[in-house]
Amino acid sequence: MHYNFVYFNANCNRSWVVDPNEYNAICLRDAEAMKDVMVVQAPLQHFPVFMRKLYAICNSPRFNKIIRLPKRVWYPFVFKRFTANNKPYCFVFASNNLSFQYIDYLRAHYPNCKIVKTHRDLVKIAHQNPEYSEENMNKVFDLRLSYDVGECAEYGLSHFDEIESKIDIEVSSDYPISDVFFAGQAKDRLARLIEAYDIFEKAGLKCDFYITNVPDDQQIKRKGVTYSNKFMPYNEMLYRSVNTRCMFDINQTGAVGYTSRFLEAVMYNKRFITDNATVKETRYYETGDIQYFENISEVDPLFVNKNNPVDYNYIDEFSPINLIKQIDRELVEKYG
Predict the structure, then answer these.
(1) Cβ distance 30 to 320 under 8 Å?
(2) What's the whole-number average pLDDT of the chain?
(3) Per-residue model confidence (pLDDT) at position 11
(4) pLDDT higher than threshold 70 for residue 66
(5) Distance set, CA 75 to CA 43, 67, 258, 284 (Å)
(6) In this predicted structure, what is the pLDDT of residue 53?
(7) Any bridge partners for residue 5, and if so which?
(8) Residue from 168, 236, 169, 170 nearest 208 by CA
């Protein structure tokens, strides 16, 4: 490759904790093994814990109300530099929280570097940080990529397929622990989730639905539905995915692209029921082990009981290695 890559993962700058089993850490695990690629899970991750805690304290809004220290004093230590070689740096920002002042520092201290933004969620999520307005991002980043086909067309971004590293997950001695598994935020889809749950339950299927961020007065109780204000630990989510017979998903409104649930279904050979039309354009859909619906009433619970083994013949198509290589290629094509 033509660059030394430093990939600031999505949770970078939110915490001093380095958790190798956190969702974004698992997604980028393949890339961590690449030569000349460094994945930054948290600032100062190569320093002892007390240094990361000190960084977090000094950069917290509460602390800065008492004593305002210049953040630039930390900039040289955010990541560990590569051993000397002649390649320029490419800094990839998955996080929407790293300051543009830090990007100015990177440009000043790393000649010929490139700054890239990957959108693994809708662009409007990035816009929630005022600094990451569309105008500002277009000025700051040399290349922007999104998983969402519609937003690529709307904002003039490059498209990339969602990424995830496949890891080994235990198969339960009590497999299957559920017939249908769903996990995610309710957002605008709670009524449809409950409608689908009722279809599956009426067919005699055991459902495991884990739904987050639903106010108490809006929760519709069902035996197999768990409501929580916390995301399920990602290792636990993968365990339940691997040990279900079928995974279920409903796209968030306006999104057009692969979801994590789709990637997991393919990687771990699970039947999949979804309203995400994007999957119909993939080779995996041709296996007959993915059911697409437009309206909940079209969901066929008999699909879950199919007896043929599922094998999508997955060969690392969603590995983050492909994203790193794509960025490298597009930068060379654009800038030489």
Answers:
(1) yes
(2) 91
(3) 78
(4) no
(5) 9, 18, 35, 44
(6) 86
(7) 37, 90
(8) 236
Contact in structure between 212 and 237 (CB atoms under 8 Å): no
Strand 89-93 relative to strand 4-8, pairing: parallel
pLDDT band at 105 (very low <50, low <70, confident <90, very high): very high
What is the end-to-end Cα distance of the chain in Å, rounded? 13
Structure-token pair, residue 92: 């990839």
Whether 241 and 177 have beta carbons less than 8 Å apart is answered as no
Q: What is the DSSP string of 272-284?
A: EEE--GGGGGSTT
Locate the domains of the chain by residue range: 4-165+319-335, 178-305
What are the b/e assignments for 197-234, b being 16+ CB within 10 Å? bebbbeeebbbbbbbbebeeeeeeebebbebeeebbeb
Greatest mean pLDDT range, 56-70, 244-258, 285-299: 285-299
Q: Residue 57: is its pLDDT beyond 90?
A: no
One-letter amino acid identity for 137? M
Report the alpha-carbon distance of residue 104 to residue 106 in Å, rounded.
5
Give the separation between CA 229 and CA 233, rounded to whole angstroms.
12
Whole-number Å distance between alpha carbons of 80 and 11? 18
CA 114 to CA 107: how far, in whole Å? Answer: 8
* Residues 6 or more apart in contact with residue 247 via CB below 8 angstroms: 180, 181, 182, 241, 261, 264, 265, 270, 271, 272, 273
For range 251-259, the mean pLDDT: 74
CATH topology of domain 178-305: Rossmann fold (3.40.50)
Query: In the structure, what pLDDT confidence band is assigned to residue 111 with cuts at 50, 70 and 90?
Result: confident
Name the more confident of 97 and 169: 169
Q: 3-class SS at 216?
A: helix
Is the separation of the CB atoms in 250 and 189 below 8 Å?
yes
Average pLDDT over residues 315-319: 95
